[in-house]
Specification:
Helix content is 86%, strand content 0%. The protein contains two helices and no strands.
């Protein structure tokens, strides 16, 4: 997919669902929390030998 098509799809996605997910800053906040959770879970797997 070329860059212009990617941006166009991303823009239409945010226009369609932006009210449900909130502003970009909130999305970044949610992504950071999710990353922290998965880092913790991966760490638990190494501690328990999984």
């Amino acid at each position: 997919m070329d860059a212009e098509a990617f941006i166009a799809h991303g823009t239409s996605l945010l226009q369609a669902f932006g009210h449900a997910v909130g502003k970009l800053a909130k999305l970044v906040e949610h992504a950071a929390c999710r990353q922290a959770k998965f880092k913790f879970l991966r760490g638990m797997g190494t501690v328990h030998g999984s």
